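Long-time lurker, first post. I've been practising inverse folding by hand and with some scripts of my own, and I keep getting stuck on stretches where the structure tokens seem ambiguous. Below is the full token string for one chain I'm working on. Before anyone asks, I'm not after the true native sequence, just a reasonable design that respects the backbone. If someone could post their per-position residues I'd love to compare against what I wrote down in my notebook.
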């Protein structure tokens, strides 16, 4: 797989979420990026609105979707056990991975067992989450993205900048340069149809030769043991039918009980994500190739990844995070995301959904600034098709990053990593003063008299505001005597 080898061995141009503030300043200064994202978000908002013109109908359908996701999560352990039984009965081999390292070890073991030196991949954000491509490349196994957007960002050595449209930040000129540079004997062209045809031809040859096909999963149906994949390009169908071995990977939260539960979620997903009534392909996979069937893999493996999801599940305050169906609507309507794009976040999942799920996947220490990247305008929660209270979760994560867990609550990974001892000391002093009225009054009078010594710099407050300064006379002094 020469095409894949040329890309996955290149260094990653990943940004660190710890540098989020610096990343945002750089993104805001990029006028072209801002124009591109603004026009793209306006386009996607308009397409979604055209399919949800009736607000009451949307609220009714959203209520169904939210109820399905909450019901599924309330029975998550039981549904996962049922799913494993049904899949095993149908010849699917189920693997459990607590961490990205465990998931990558399973992929590597299967590749070595089958003598595979390459994999062809359909779109999978969870595979991005575990950095599958580069972890496999370290062991000589080359992974090639077959989704056109993912293929483009793989050539560029970048993360996807959007859940649904990975290369939305790229211009046709940049894509033309990537193709001319990385694909042998490819002339420079800015014709979009020609670029698509070039990419399609490269990928078509790779489907035929790959021993392993990799895919994500949109929904897992416990009662039927089915994997449901939603796509538009047909590459997902090729990845799951042409290679001899199909490995699917997804998060443990994607399970629903019955196939009837998929239909409302599918309707919400397609309309919210790309403004389509339906996508081009809806793939339902229930086991490997059976006797007499002409296509399909000889073996099918499913990897169920935790990677911090059980932390969100265990906390009643954060469990609704797992309702997400990865439509990206919250990104399309977020004023912050529209101005900085997805790469600035430095995480697999950018935008509002990334700000609430990344702290569970990576811990609060490297992601402590992400929940603050919001005006709390509520646009994300208004369009979320499954009713996730994103602003509420952002506020809770902000508090968790700066304060210790409440008594009786299990701390999140990285809890209080942004705690400022000076701020904590100031609040303790404030609390002590308010508990001692005489000292409080004395300190307040002293503060009024020494107001001229107020420091002009007051930590983060004065970064965008004028310094806080006591008035010349307090309210108590202004009141008539005897009135308090």
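-- Answer (accepted) --
I ran through it position by position. Result:
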């Amino acid at each position: 797989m020469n095409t894949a080898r040329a890309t996955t061995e290149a260094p990653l141009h990943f940004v660190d979420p710890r540098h989020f503030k610096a990343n945002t300043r750089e993104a805001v200064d990029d006028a072209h990026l801002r124009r591109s994202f603004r026009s793209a978000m306006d386009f996607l908002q308009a397409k979604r609105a055209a399919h949800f013109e009736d607000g009451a109908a949307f609220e009714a359908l959203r209520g169904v979707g939210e109820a399905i996701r909450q019901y599924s999560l309330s029975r998550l352990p039981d549904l996962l056990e049922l799913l494993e039984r049904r899949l095993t009965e149908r010849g699917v081999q189920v693997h459990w991975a607590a961490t990205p390292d465990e998931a990558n070890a399973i992929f590597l073991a299967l590749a070595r067992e089958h003598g595979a030196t390459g994999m062809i991949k359909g779109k999978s954000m969870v595979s991005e989450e575990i950095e599958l491509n580069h972890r496999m490349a370290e062991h000589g196994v080359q992974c090639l993205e077959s989704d056109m957007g993912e293929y483009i960002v793989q050539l560029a050595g970048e993360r996807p900048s959007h859940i649904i449209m990975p290369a939305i930040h790229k211009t046709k000129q940049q894509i033309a340069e990537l193709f001319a540079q990385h694909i042998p004997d490819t002339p420079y062209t800015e014709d979009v149809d020609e670029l698509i045809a070039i990419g399609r031809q490269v990928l078509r040859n790779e489907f035929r030769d790959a021993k392993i096909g990799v895919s994500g999963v949109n929904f897992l149906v416990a009662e039927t043991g089915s994997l449901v994949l939603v796509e538009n390009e047909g590459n997902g169908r090729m990845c799951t039918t042409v290679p001899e071995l199909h490995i699917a990977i997804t998060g443990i939260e994607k399970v629903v009980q019955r196939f009837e539960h998929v239909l409302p979620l599918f309707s919400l997903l397609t309309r919210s994500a790309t403004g389509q009534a339906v996508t081009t392909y809806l793939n339902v996979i229930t086991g490997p190739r059976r006797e007499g069937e002409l296509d399909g893999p000889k073996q099918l493996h499913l990897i169920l990844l935790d990677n911090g999801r059980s932390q969100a599940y265990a906390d009643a305050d954060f469990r609704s995070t797992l309702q997400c169906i990865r439509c990206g609507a919250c990104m399309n309507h977020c004023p912050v995301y529209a101005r900085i794009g997805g790469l600035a976040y430095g995480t697999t999942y950018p935008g509002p959904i990334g700000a609430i799920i990344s702290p569970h996947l990576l811990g609060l220490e490297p992601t402590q600034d992400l929940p603050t990247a919001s005006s709390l305008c509520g646009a994300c929660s208004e369009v979320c098709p499954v009713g996730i209270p994103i602003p509420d979760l952002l506020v809770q994560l902000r508090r968790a990053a700066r304060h210790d867990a409440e008594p009786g609550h299990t701390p999140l990974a990285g809890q209080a990593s942004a705690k400022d001892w000076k701020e904590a000391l100031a609040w303790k002093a404030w609390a002590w003063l308010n508990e001692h009225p005489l000292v409080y009054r004395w300190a307040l009078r002293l503060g009024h008299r020494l107001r001229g010594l107020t420091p002009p710099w007051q930590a983060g407050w004065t970064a965008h505001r004028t310094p806080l300064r006591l008035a010349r006379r307090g309210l108590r002094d202004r009141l008539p005597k005897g009135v308090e």
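A couple of notes from the structure itself: The longest helix spans residues 31-51. Residues 76-310 form a domain with the Rossmann fold fold (CATH 3.40.50.10420). Happy to go over any region you disagree with.
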